[in-house]
Amino acid sequence: MGLVTGACFAELGNRVICADNDTKKIAGLKKGVIPIYEPGLKELIGINAKSRRLVFTSNIKEAVRTCEVIFIAVGTPALPNGEADLTGIENVARNIALNLSGYRLVVEKSTVPVETGKWVKHTIQTYARGRGKFDVASNPEFLREGQAISDFMHPDRIVIGVESKKAQTILTDLYRPLNAPIVVTDIASAELIKHASNSFLATKISFINAVSAICEKVGADIKEVALGMGLDKRIGSAFLNAGVGYGGSCFPKDLEAFITISEKLGYDFSLLKASRDINYQQKVSFVNKIKDALWIVKGKTIAVLGLSFKPNTDDIRSAPSLDIIQALRLEGARIRAYDPSAMEKAKELLRGVVFCKDPYEACRGSDCALVVTEWDEFKELDLAKVKKALRRPLIIDGRNIYEPGRMEKLGFTYIGIGRKKTKKG
Ligand code: UDX
Predict the structure, then answer these.
(1) How far is the CA of 412 from the centre of ligand 1 (A)?
(2) Which string of b and e fits 187-205 if b means at least 16 CB within 10 Å?
(3) How many angstroms does the Cα of residue 248 sit away from the middle of ligand 1?
(4) Which residue intervals of 105-161 are DSSP H helices?
(5) What's the N-to-C CA distance of the chain in angstroms?
(6) Domain 186-425 is in which class?
(7) Residue 391 Cα, ligand 1 centroid: separation in angstroms?
């Protein structure tokens, strides 16, 4: 998020310094090595680094001394108790305080629990000991992995939480070129908008996943139900795709953090707990579908198509694939996996899995194929070739990328999420 934000602000004509205490990452970036896979990012960094609008440094002091606006974009990972770990934020706040001079606008960009802004302000005040002036602001980022640049450049809205007119003017000017609606609030409201938005979207997914379970019981089709619901403008069709559940670095963590912070504030957010439970159950029910179809899982070979938590990214953080593969391995299955870009990262986490060079190779000699991530590549597979490669024509589609009728015609036993199961092929 930090890198995308930096590159995009540079593209908008600002001079940007991306600072990180990870010297290896910075050394790589200086040579044009991009540490993540994000479509278009390498090119954007290349152009802006060449024109020197975008520079990289591990010298935080220099960055703080040079820049008028400082965005904090460090990670806020979940602690074992679900709370967000704000050590990184506190570290940066102290660093800013120690190098403060003139006026600085310090902007929280990382997703943080409500009231973090208050603590950032307090920390800077405490450690700056009268050095320089500053304002704190909250400017949550809503970009999605895989389409981060276009999300940044064409946002639905920009949220800025401020305490002073000066901070408001600086941020409004910075975002003016994007021509998007700007919502100006106090800091706590801006912080809440981010957690509430992510939790709402996660709940929307859990809702449709819950409905998919009912569809399976009565022979209805979740895609048709979602279409019929989504055309109601008040509901909207986005985030109504039933599947194996949401993953990624944001939804699971943000939901957990929102539940925990609510609890701390004396409110039991049981709705979000239910969303979380349904998401967990969705993976269990997917594994149960596999067990039902294979009868005995022990000794079976299973092809897993897709490892990243969603398409167009190599990110496997909290990816449903990890839990599903782990459950199947515990049952004694052999796994042959393929993903267009997440295999390097998956290899570090998944032991005993055979990583294959393409989807057909993964299917070769397997007793069934699972679709876990809806990469376009899988939508365009030569299904006759898949059928030939498999030991039996069984596909369990965790993302509903194929049409049951077509699969039946092709002779597959096809099991989707919330859809009619086709007859045995
Ligand atoms: C999310 C938010 O969308 C973004 O605004 C925020 O800044 C960061 O978190 P991201 O995690 O990149 O973005 O992915 P997103 O596209 O939102 O998908 C999250 C998860 O939900 C994925 O695992 C995806 O497969 C799943 N999902 C999404 C569904 O299962 N069904 C849907 O209909 C939509």
Answers:
(1) 30
(2) beebbbbbbebbbebbbbb
(3) 7
(4) 116-128, 148-153
(5) 46
(6) alpha beta
(7) 34
DSSP per residue, 232-272: STTT-STT---SS---SSSHHHHHHHHHHHHHHTT---HHH
- In this structure, the residues whose C-beta lies within 6 A of any atom of ligand 1 are 141-145, 198, 201, 205, 239-241, 243, 246-248, 250-251, 309-310
Structure pTM? 0.93
- Name which residue sits closest to atom 14 of ligand 1, judged by CA: 144
Indicate if 186-425 has the same CATH topology as 2-185: yes
Active-site positions? 250
pLDDT 10s digits, 67-126: 999 999 999 988 888 888 999 999 999 999 999 999 999 999 998 989 999 999 999 999
CATH number of the structural domain 2-185:
3.40.50.720
**Which pLDDT band, with edges at 50, 70 and 90, does 425 fall under?**
very low
| Domain-wise residue ranges, the chain | 2-185, 186-425
Q: What is the pLDDT of residues 8-33, one digit of tens each?
A: 999 999 999 999 999 999 999 999 99
